[in-house]
Amino acid sequence: MTPTCHHLPQFEHADPLLSAAGEVAATLRTAGHLALFAGGCVRDALLGRPLKDIDIATSATPDEVEQLFAGATVAVGKAFGVIVVCRPPHTFEVATFRADGDYRDGRRPDTVRFTDAAEDARRRDFTINGLFYDPASGEMLDFIQGRADLAAGIVRAIGAPALRFQEDHLRLLRAVRFTAVLGFRLDPATAAAARAAAPLLADVSAERIGMEFTRMLCEAPRPSEALELLGELDLLPRFLPEVAALRGVAQPPAYHPEGDVWTHTCLMLDAIPAPRDPTLAYAALLHDVGKPPTLLCGPDGVPRFPSHAPVGAAMARAILLRLKRPSDLIEAVVIAVDRHMTFVTLPEMRPAKLRRFLGSPTFPLELALHKLDVTNSHGKLEIAVFAEQKIAEFAAEPVLPEAWIKGRDLLALGLKPGPRVGQWLVHAYDAQLEARFPDREALRDWIRQSLAAETP
Known about the structure:
23 helices; two-stranded antiparallel ribbon; single chain; Hypothetical protein af1432; about 10% strand; eight-stranded mixed β-sheet; Beta Polymerase, domain 2
């Protein structure tokens, strides 16, 4: 391999992250060590993508790195040659060139030995992630034909694909993520090895799976391509069988001319604007997950899905808990899935119930989900327009204003502590929301009279 000079504009403009990374590399170089930008940052620079972080590979040992940056390091992976160097507000993983021993846990090597840049490149996952760049000379170091695969738009495992997946089972999902996020093609040999290795996904922690899959949903220009590839590689049924089951589930053509539940879900995911919010993405993915288990076909042959929303909400909770997603995301998605069919009843709701619905903290998410749902099916947006008009009517005041009547007011009117206090608080707030009384005093008088009428 002969290094080639390939100056990259992404590495040459003034930028605080680049400046800090350059200082770390210069410190290593001044001490006599080779220091190269490595992996994803080089790939993204060649593709003209924004740089999120910069990893540095070096000939310096972990001990030497710690000595050079005394007081500004964290030994997060010292056993694997990795030291984090802090240059606030930035941090950099500085990794010693290494070759890996056996992988017995499907995640990390049992042993490593320090080596040179060429051997370090060959132990990495995909060719597009195995490139190095020397910030001092502008030389690109390509030991694994990564630039050619970048130019061709191919995700290819380095060396023997089966061995790469045996080493780290999460690479099965990383192959899909890189392919979908970059809009590339997965090398056929790599794809075949991934399909054969699909059972290995059972050994990957749910949290790692959840993090990779979330990135697919949020970063891929078309998340449907990630879902399709996960299906082709036999990976989706192994961690999301409920989503895999959406394929082929027919829907009533009058409401869903676009096709089956799988097609409808994929269209919705692709239609979410960037930057894609993970809560909305999961709500779209799972909003109809209750349809397969509730499918009924009547004498007319039209498929129906009675109670699929509450069934789907329970399934969504189980799925998101299984993927170790954040609790606030889980709660919001479950509510959105549970109530997504309620939108059709908005025009008939009593004013108090409507205001409670519109004033829910999750309503913006639910409205966004409803718009995606109808836009990617029958296209009728009348309910969304109705909801937005009602929200506009409350622009000068909160949709759910502060309650005029509190518990202490009811106690002062003679109610004893107990369940009736809660019941009366609901009655009073409904009356306030429905504007049945002009002010607090009028509402309080009505409650007093009502309580007096109840007294034997």
